[in-house]
Amino acid sequence: MTERITNKVSLDIEDGIAFLTIDNPPVNALGQLVRQGLAEGVQRAGDDPAVQAVVIIARGRTFPAGADITEFGKPPLEPFLPDVCQTIEDCPKPVIAALHGTALGGGFEIALSAHYRIALPSTRVGLPEVNLGLLPGAGGTQRMPRIAGAGPALDLMLTGKPIKAPRALEIGVIDEIADTDDLRAASADYARRLLAQGAGARPTSQRAEGIADKHAFLAECQARRAQLERRARGQKSPFMIVDCVQAAAETPFAEGMKKERAAFMECLGSDQSKGMIHAFFAERQTARIPEAKTARPRAIDRLGVVGGGTMGAGIAVAMLQSGLPVVMVERDDESLARGRANVERVFDRNISKGRMTDADKSAIMGRFSGATDYDALEGCDLVVEAVFEDMDVKKAVFAELDRVLRPGAVLATNTSYLDIDEIAASTARPQDVIGLHFFSPANIMKLLEIVVPARVADDVVVTAFALAKRLGKVPVRAGVCDGFIGNRMLAVYRRAADYMMEDGASPYDIDAAIRDFGFPMGPYQVVDLAGGDISWAARKRRAATRPPEERYVDIPDQLCKRGWFGQKTGRGYYIYDDKSPRGRPDPEVLDIIDAERARKNITPRAFSPDEIRDRYLAAMINEGCKIVDEGIALRPLDVDVTLLNGYAFPRWRGGPMKYADMTGLDVILSNLRAWAAEDAYFWRPSPLLERLVAEGRSLDDLNKAAT
User: Is the pTM for the entire model greater than 0.90?
Assistant: First the structure.
């Protein structure tokens, strides 16, 4: 007979085996009623003389996949997860965790506190807390190293990436892989075999396989700490993870648990965790758009791409990987052959890295076709134009799409800057035209700016979001303006960097300060990577409409006039050669900067790293506020998601708008007003920022009001 412990956990006994079944859809999150049910259920089973073994199992699609996110930010409720895990481990009878789906975070810590683990072959396990600026807080840092050693434990905790059941079996954190899809039957059979062998409770805290070679264990921890100094400088939780794992070899279990709990609570209260938790939720909120309240997506079964260059090929790859057929159109056979080769090159690279097989590639490429005639797109439901960034060229493409595509098909442009309202107006069906701004490489970058022109139909907007989900992208709704959200902000904060460069800071000092903040590259390294000619073309395009009061720095143009476009020409702000493939400072660039300062009668002054950071970020934040105020972005969180996923803003900072809230909007505004004394046009504060400070409100208040 089945007994309900809570409405989320039930207990039934079959031939001496107690099954504790979790049923908390959709992902069996470890909410308070699940924790209570597990703790009470294990205690009852342990006290029941009719019970010989306990199996913890879950209904639905997965074993618990982590904490209940609805409890985030609320007062904690007993029983706490570490206590539940200890109750499981202390059970005097063998406890078996039966895993399927994804056992992640606290769910995997539940499994680690059990004495034995069995899993379906498709199961994945992981400890992804580092992605929220946290660390495993229910014994994961102490139990897993005792079983698997420092290397596998740190791999799982520092990357946050799950591993598949065979790998988990290999490192010892799973004891058996079921040979049947009936996990209940398999776990019952496993329990009976254990009992027949005389196997009893096996507390993980008493295991020592992973820490037997203490010298090697500690050496691994030291090596990981050195790696983190290079790639995670400034972050908190990765270093604390290493400290806690090291404690598993150096202290008794109870002491290690105390260290883990203290570290977890410190991380939980940190700005880094707040930033990463904000990013986690923000990425799930960007799909909440006004159009979705009334419209439904159109059917998307066949896709097209115009253009087979780097961007067009990347878009085609993303579409093909989603399982959809794709037609690519190029201007001639030679260009089409290059486009196909660009697509195949991505898959060949995946084959060389063991990520796919030749058979996988053949199956995917079977959905790819190419043509030099637009008529081949006739049966497509949505076509993305990915040609040269020129209005006349794009209008010519859209004239052809307008001619061949059926009524109701979606016409999308991948433009980064151009006026999509103007493109739409050049067709007979502006209601079907939308912007899909992919980021390069389009098959890898997660961000997809969905740019909404004035006359587009609501169901086209919803269709674009549905396509983003199918492609595995993070979509952000943007309005039409020069550069939309991301590139508009990029132009402004890069201009702030140029002003500092002309006023006295070297590009190398600026890059270093921005890297120290957490960006993987500084702005001038990014220019060299992307190609200086790209931003040069945008500056020339804007020249006729540039406001006369806007300060203009000629230094970037001086480099471009010399043909120094960055990595692709071997020289930009940095020199790239065999001795320094990643680039080294160029004395001639500094001479060009000095000459420009002299020409403009600028006396250079020193900029501290803190001032460089503050000006760079204030320009970014101020423009983000203007974008929200103008309705180009729906909410501040949309700005954050754009910068996090498209422009490498450090995730542990939460995004520029979250960072602004944590810094203090009054501090940002005070700086802007002070700097406006030297350049009133550039540093003019956003009216939204001024209103929020006057009202004592935050940017996050706007996020909450919009949900």
Answer: yes
